[in-house]
Amino acid sequence: MSGSGSDGSVAAGFLWMLLISVLLFWLPGLGALIAGVVGGRAAGGVGNAILAALLPALLLALAFFVFGAALTGLMVIGFIAGAGVGAMVLTHVGFLLLGAIVGGLLA
How many domains does the chain have? Predict the structure, then answer.
């Protein structure tokens, strides 16, 4: 601990959160909490950790919206698929944000 500020980055926190979330998907709340703590420490601070926690959620919801519309050819179906995934992501991102804040405070 050198005390020189944050040694982490948003990209590192984002990658750790994404990787651990995918690996621990079978632990609904606890997996996201663990991913948030690890990613928050890797991000190096609370602000970076919160940003790193929100990026995977937004990218996942956007990807399902785009791919749902592209694969069906109908924007309405893409919107419904994106909204469904968005609702699932909101339940996941709560635990991820809580873990990110704790991890950011530990960094």
Answer: 1
Contacts (Cβ under 8 Å, ≥6 apart) of 24? 30, 31, 32, 34, 35
Note whether residue 3 is domain-resident: no
Is 35's pLDDT higher than 90?
yes
Tell me if 2 is assigned to some domain: no
Task: For residue range 74-98, list pLDDT tens digits in order.
Answer: 778 777 877 787 777 777 788 999 9
Residue corresponding to tokens 């609370």: 46
**31 lies in which domain range?**
10-106
CA distance 99 to 33: 5
Residue 90: HSE in the Cβ half-sphere, 13 Å Cα cutoff: 6
Does residue 37 lie within any of the structural domains? yes
pTM above 0.85, yes or no: no
Tell me the C-alpha distance between 6 and 18, whole Å. Answer: 21
Instruction: Confirm whether 21 is domain-assigned.
Output: yes
